[in-house]
Design goal:
alpha/beta; 6-stranded mixed β-sheet; 16 strands; 5-stranded mixed β-sheet
């Protein structure tokens, strides 16, 4: 062994080969006490030779040697050190081959090492390595829990270990981890934290060999700040200067510097449209790809960026060579990246779908569309928490509808329906018992009695898929583009937000929007469904925020001069076919007793006088009723009574938070909120929940395809049907509608959905004289409506022009929508 050590000391590759032979021979006859130093020298020699010529067989042999060394008798600290080396060598091999087994082997070894010295400062380097490996695994599998664990570890290390030699590396890794989270969250706060960590690492690395990689990390953080924070194009200029300087001293990390520099040039092209920046971006990516091994996982993001830049240049020049080269790059990422870099592969699939679809190459676009849809479902299922699932869906919120449009154009209507259903209610898959996955047979079963219509927009026009009698009827909607829908839905949102100051403008914008909905999509939906008198709409994206049942076309024979969609058919809504099936099952088992009414929980802050009219009218039609009002509407009281309710009627204030929909809820006494999460966790058995409050049916705009809102939360909790509102409704018209609804359901024998439709038409078409004639006979208390309620309503209409249709505007009746069964 002394000869081998002497040869190693000369640091000559030929001497290392000779030392390897001597060590191998010595190990065969070594006594047990001599095995450990021999094995240590063996793996060090093999590692030295690997680093000089890159032969992976030498690295593999070194891994075997150090694993054997770690199994020899030794102290916990010594075993931890060898397991640390084992983990790092597995990671080096993973970076060369992309084999998942090496990634998992590295994590296992380093976790074992950390556990052996868990009470010692020696554990800190192992924690740093574990965090780096969790980032590697996140890049491969996109499991957000890995990313969050890495961030937690690195934040702890960088806060506590201020004098550690590895601090600059940990700060750089923290910046990289925050970069990944920014791509998901688009958080300006995370972007700022990433810049802070990267800048600190860069300052620590001055005068060291790590300066170049630290410069690249700072450049990447500045790029994120340009995209998601408050930084401007100047951040890109600074990133380009940092990376250009780093390339000179980057050595083996030169591909990283070129990659970041290429991203900066590409984004600066998008900001300034200088084709020179685009040329630089393409050349840098290609050079980096030429330097990387064919199996390196790092190829996938580079190919993705190359494909994106070539698409930009093809749009400028229409050069067939750019088209072929860009599509080939993206196809390689989709084909190979699902195993080694799923995040890049999903983005590449999105780009392929968009690029091919805008060219009308529907059959070619269908393949990446199918891959994206299946991969997203698998990726979603791999997330650990509901919060992580919601964050992941946020990134790809428009794609399920686009995939449906592509597959329908490609002639596979059933696959289009499956893709759109798969994009619906993903967060509630566990509740739905979705072990079998989404199949067209399950969708057709849900549409057996009533047609289901999936409705979506895309950059290339919208799509209606009507599932009727076991088949899919397709109607393409050229006017329902994402751009047009965004314009109309945002216009309606802002008019609604400002309605208190300009109610006339709000009514006008609502009228115009509903008229546009008729020509853009609803007319075609009614035609494609055909004869059935009822249909269930499953709208996607921003369409979930619009009153599709109130779309209208001129009709001089109608009292209002308009024919509305609900005049043609009974229209209800569902989050998806699976949730609808669940609601129907609940409806078959539910009873409508007892009634629970919750009335005006915050009477002092903002009283609702006609809440008493709603609950009074409902209570008169139920033999069993439980009532909570005013200060009695506490969180505990509500949670006690709701699980036993057959019908729930809430007449009070609601709140819709379109940015964080989980914070939407129903107002309680004392300013408390019964949030969506509270409702979703309750074991409800109600046949119907009536949420007669402001904006109780508004889903979140952040992930609208998940229809995250109160109706879906209550269906998830077990309610069979929910009536909610899309905007704040005037107190009087809301009370009139609810009174007529309960009469239609309880006295006229209509279904809840049909009773809501009848009530909306009554409120819309009844003149002041008609209302007076309805309520006057009830003022003595001998009818179905309490005298107090009849008098309150009569007083509101007695002074109006007898012929006036007091509540004809959709603003007073169209807000309410029926979701479920």
């Amino acid at each position: 062994m002394r000869l081998a050590e002497a040869l190693l000391a000369r640091a000559d590759p030929g001497d290392a080969e000779a030392a390897l032979g001597h060590l191998t021979a010595a190990l065969e006859s070594a006594a047990p006490k001599d095995r450990l130093p021999l094995l240590d020298n063996l793996w060090r020699v093999r590692l030295q030779l690997f680093q000089s010529d890159g032969d992976l067989a030498l690295l593999t042999a070194a891994i075997s040697d150090v694993r054997r060394a770690a199994a020899e008798p030794q102290s916990p600290e010594e075993r931890a050190e060898r397991l640390g080396y084992l983990g790092r060598m597995h990671r080096w091999r993973y970076q060369e081959t992309g084999h998942e087994a090496d990634l998992e082997g590295a994590l296992q070894a380093l976790v074992q090492a950390e556990l052996l010295v868990t009470d010692s400062p020696a554990r800190l380097p192992y924690l740093g390595d574990i965090a780096a490996l969790l980032l590697d695994r996140f890049e491969r599998k996109q499991i957000i829990d890995d990313l969050e664990r890495a961030i937690d570890i690195l934040e702890s290390l960088t806060a506590l270990a201020t004098d550690e030699p590895s601090l600059a590396t940990w700060l750089a890794n923290l910046a990289n981890a925050l970069h990944h989270r920014v791509e998901i969250s688009q958080s300006a706060e995370d972007s700022a934290r990433a810049v802070g960590a990267a800048d600190r690492a860069f300052r620590l690395a001055q005068g060291t060999r790590d300066r170049s990689v630290a410069a690249c990390n700072l450049a990447a953080a500045l790029i994120d700040r340009h995209q998601y924070g408050d930084g401007g194009v100047n951040d890109l200029d600074e990133a380009i200067v940092l990376c250009a300087d780093a390339i000179e001293g980057a050595g083996e990390l030169r591909p990283l510097a070129r990659q970041v520099l290429g991203v900066a040039y590409g984004l600066r092209f998008e900001a300034r449209h200088d084709e020179g920046d685009l040329r630089q971006a393409i050349e840098l990516r290609q050079t980096s790809l030429d330097e990387l091994g064919a199996d390196s996982p790092a190829r996938m993001p580079l190919l993705l960026d190359l494909g994106r830049c070539l698409r930009h240049r093809h749009q400028l020049r229409q050069d067939p060579a750019d088209l072929a080269r860009g599509l080939a790059a993206l196809r390689e990422v989709v084909g190979r990246g699902m195993e080694t870099h799923r995040g890049a592969a999903l983005k590449a699939a999105e780009l392929l779908v968009d690029w091919l679809a805008e060219r009308g190459a529907w059959a070619e676009a269908a393949e990446p569309a199918r891959i994206w849809s299946a991969a997203l479902a698998a990726q979603f299922g791999a997330q650990v928490t509901v919060q992580h699932k919601a964050r992941y869906l946020h990134v790809d919120q428009q794609m399920p509808g686009r995939v449906g449009v592509v597959l329908a154009h490609a002639g596979d209507a059933e696959a289009a329906a499956v893709a759109m259903e798969r994009g619906r209610t993903q967060l509630f898959a566990d509740t739905l018992g979705d072990g079998e996955g989404v199949t067209f047979a399950r969708i057709a079963e849900a549409a057996r009695d009533t047609p289901l219509v999936y409705l979506t927009s895309s950059p290339w026009g919208g799509l209606a898929l009507a599932v009727v009698d076991g088949e899919v009827r397709v109607r393409h909607l050229p006017d329902l583009t994402e751009e047009a829908l965004s314009d109309w839905s945002s216009g309606l949102y802002w008019a609604r937000a400002r309605r208190a100051g300009d109610p006339e403008r709000w009514r006008d914008v609502l009228d115009w929007t509903c008229e546009w909905l008729w020509t853009a999509c609803v007319r075609d939906v009614l035609e494609v469904v055909g004869e059935p008198e009822e249909l269930v709409l499953i709208p996607c994206g921003p369409l979930t925020t619009l009153p599709l049942h109130a779309a209208w076309t001129p009709d001089p024979t109608a009292p209002t001069g308009r024919c509305y969609a609900l005049d043609r058919k009974l229209i209800t809504y569902a989050p998806g076919a699976r949730m609808l099936h669940r609601a129907r099952t609940a409806a078959a088992a539910a009873t409508a007793d007892p009634l629970v009414t919750i009335e005006d929980p915050e009477p002092v802050a903002n009283p609702l006088p006609f809440a008493r009219a709603e609950t009074g009218a409902a209570g008169a039609l139920w033999p069993q009723a439980v009532s909570l009002r005013g200060d009695d509407v506490t969180r505990d009281a509500v949670r006690d009574v709701l699980p036993g309710a057959g019908v729930i009627h809430f007449a009070g204030h609601g709140r819709a938070d379109i940015v964080e929909p989980a914070r939407s809820g129903l107002g309680l006494a004392g300013g408390e909120l019964l949030a969506m999460d509270d409702l979703a966790g309750m074991p409800l058995r109600a046949r119907l929940a009536v949420l007669s409050a402001c904006e109780t049916a508004v889903p979140g705009l952040d992930i609208p395809d998940e229809v995250i809102g109160l109706p879906t939360a209550m269906l998830q909790a077990g309610a069979a049907g929910v009536i909610g509102s899309l905007w704040a409704v005037p107190d009087v018209s809301s009370a009139l509608l609810m009174i007529m609804f309960y009469r239609g359901w309880r006295l006229d024998g209509l279904s809840p959905a049909a009773a809501l439709r009848a009530a909306q038409r009554t409120v819309r078409d009844t003149s002041a004289k008609g209302w007076v004639e309805l309520f006057e006979p009830l003022l003595d208390g001998d009818g179905w409506l309490p005298a107090e309620v009849a008098e309150m309503c009569w007083e509101q209409v007695i002074l109006a022009d007898p012929g006036e249709l007091v509540y004809a505007s959709p603003s007073g009746w169209a807000s309410f929508a029926f979701t479920g069964a």
